Amino acid sequence: MRRRRSSRRGALSAARHVAVGAVLAMLAAAGPLHAQGGLSTEGALFLLVPVGARTVGSGQATATAEWGTESLWGNPAGIARATRREAALHYSRTVVANGTVLALVYPAGKAGVLGFGAQLYDYGAQELTDVDGTVGELLPRSVVLAATYAATLGTAFRAGVTYKRAQSRLDCTGPCGSVATFNASTSGLDAGVQYQSVRADSLAAGLTLRHLGLKLQVNDEAQSDPLPTRVQVGVGARVPAVAKALPGAELHWSAELVNRTSLDDPAVRLGAELGLQKQLFLRAGYASGTGEATGPAIGLGFVRGALRIDFARVFGGFSSDAGQPPTFLTLRVEW
Q1: Which residue, 27, 85, 103, 314, could crosslink 297 as a Cys pair with Cβ 3.0–4.6 Å?
Q2: Which of 59, 93, 96 is nearest to 326 (CA)?
Q3: Rounded-to-integer distance, Cα 230 and Cα 261, Å
Q4: pLDDT, tens digit, for every residue of 18-49?
């Protein structure tokens, strides 16, 4: 992102503006579920930003998904049936921030499946200057560390839980003694279950409770904000007729509702994925609401041996209005 400048005399004010700007940026990026004004009272809004090109290209409908490392940031039950290890890099770029996620899924045999992830959102540096030129930079960032455990429950049910350590921070380089830097952290949990039928269409249902945890405290307890807790419930299935009409093809659809625990402002997510010979994947989706990650989306996926590449683009939100549609790229390796 473009770097901005401020004088050292206004360093304290600049730091506050950067912090507020990062929060406002995430208000836009968080997207759905703010019509009632609820986002203004929630903290760690970066937790609402989707991770993974397959997720975005499929309209963020993740309640029934089994998408490897992307399920660490969706429904953690989605890794319960993993039989191969997966390492992935998930990258996103908008006018708000650049996001980078490193993640790993590790099947541990009968003990279940483990997952680990590290996420960084960089909102861009702001230069601090005086009469001699640039003397330092303000660095607003968000960091999330995640650990997941999931297992199957019989032949039809799966369950998983993710622990997250989320951090919002404003750092400064150079002689920044007068700058109000901060480092605020909190902990949260995601928990989810999935059901898979034995029908020909493999009808599935999923339920996820995300971002349940302690308040994010930047200054003092009175000013702490609750995490943006969300409930996601969805269904998905395969369309057998497509495979009969076009050998080697598979069409999956998914739909879900997302809401706060107060159930006062639901959002809809819809997605479809067409796979051809298990090598090329075409995706389309839609997430209702307003914001950076909502609106229509498309995606592509390619598989070549152990390497998988996914790409997605969203055609809505602040970035699209500014001429830079949100773009997501995923590189993953399975072995």
Answers
A1: 314
A2: 93
A3: 6
A4: 444 444 444 444 444 443 344 557 888 899 99
